[in-house]
Amino acid sequence: MISNNLQTKADETGRALAGAICDARRVIDFYPIVRGRPAKAVAPNGYSIIETLIVVALIGVLSALAVPQLIAERRLSRSIGVTREILSQLRQARQLAMSQRQAITFQYDNATKQILIIDHNSNVGPLLLTDPSYPNTAGRVIVSTTPLATGGLDSSEITIGIPTGVPNAPLGDGISMTALTNNQLNVTFQPDGSVIDLNGNPTGTALFIYNNRAARGTAAAISVVGASGRIKIWRYDSNANAYAE
User: Which of 7, 12, 189, 215 is the most exposed place for a label (fewest CB within 10 A)?
Assistant: First the structure.
């Protein structure tokens, strides 16, 4: 979808430039006298100095219009990549928990803008969650570390929360934004792929995220349904004024 938008804008810019060149040639043909002197004749397929200057000026104008749009599209593309990476890491953590039959934690650290997948190598259930050192439990192993600020995306642009003007309402699955604890979000998957709370009850989790350079256009959320462990990605729809799956 993003590549199609970029191609469309490039085509539009090309057509506008071609039209501008034709217009410039018509202007020169219509005014054969410049500053009281006959215009210099040129070959049928050649360009006069005046035509060249006009085209250069038009290129500058068109570039000034097109470049900001291309930058916005690139920022949107990178921000979509961040939400997809979060989705991928959550799925990986759940898959590991189910395949290894033990608790695996997905941890997002808002200070470092990184994702850790932690293998606790210990008992599962509420006992793990009530451990005073959780999620830094004894014997834990960090399976992977994944930075989100890549591909030219500055870490300062990644923002957790809901942009101003966007409704702060539960998602379509009924899950609301989960508050960070010590600037982190920890989601621990059980061997059956579910997510539970301190009392052993299924609990849903949702991480809302956006790029503060284009807040409303990049607003998204990733939710985890506690009972099933199903992971969903949501994006803000300005027409519906709500997050849509």
Answer: 7
